[in-house]
Amino acid sequence: MNPTHPSATVSPVIAALSSLPDFDPRKVPVQGIDAHLPAVPREAQTPQALRARFAHPPQWEPEVVLEKKFTNRAPAHASVLVAIVQRAQPMVLLTERTAHLSTHSGQVAFPGGRADPEDATPADTALREAEEEVGLAREFVEVLGTLPIYVTGTSFIITPVVALVRPDCVLHPNPYEVADLFEVPLAFLLDPANHRRHVFDSDGVHREWFSMPYQDGDKNRFIWGATAGMLRNFYRFMQA
Fold first, then answer.
1. Residues 83-115: pLDDT tens digits?
2. Where are the alpha helices (DSSP H) in 36-144?
3. Which of 100, 126, 82, 103 has the alpha carbon at shortest distance from 15?
């Protein structure tokens, strides 16, 4: 966390808490909502403004970069695609992972996964994984840049790759990995009034994390853990 931030009371998040028996992150009390922080202006969220932001990034510090370790799994490099679909209102593409997966099952996540030896860059990993996971062909994607590495409690060293996606893309989710595919307005995610802070104590260990619950029709999409942490960093990058 960056101690200079007015809301920097939140320690590293840990998505792997979902591995605990009977743990439900939705039931953990909300300790605060950051409505006092400014939202990123809408004019800064256009494709042209996003391109300019990544072409000439500001001086800034990420707020959440390292979760408390939860397993003894060997570290593994991975990338996720923060895919901004260029609709009239820019939207961020997210997935709900299937319940049977060994890591982060049932959670809201960006498309992405482990790096392969054949991947030349983190962007190559994110693009390959997005195509395998949700059927997003590379021809529809314009990579803008990356956010700082984020290390999860399950020892994944993740590079978030931010990209613009053409709205005419056709997606084909892999049913083995993806239970559902949906979009959330970028403006919603870049408004701290929608950023909630939670606190949880278990076996003498104190943990805190962000959540960004989004009502999508009749479904409540509970964005939390690593995904929310990376989105919080995206907010800090855009607001710097």
1. 999 999 999 999 998 864 444 435 899 999 999
2. 47-55, 122-134
3. 103
Amino acid at 94: L
For residue 1, tell me if it sits in a domain: no
* Farthest-apart Cα atoms in the chain, separation: 50
Q: Residue 193 maps to which CATH number?
A: 3.90.79.10
Is the pLDDT at 174 greater than 70, yes or no?
yes
Domain total of the chain: 1
What stretch of H or E contains 239?
helix 225-239
Judge whether 190 lies within some domain. Answer: yes
The residue segments making up the domain with residue 39 are: 15-19+28-239
The answer to whether position 80 is within a domain reads yes
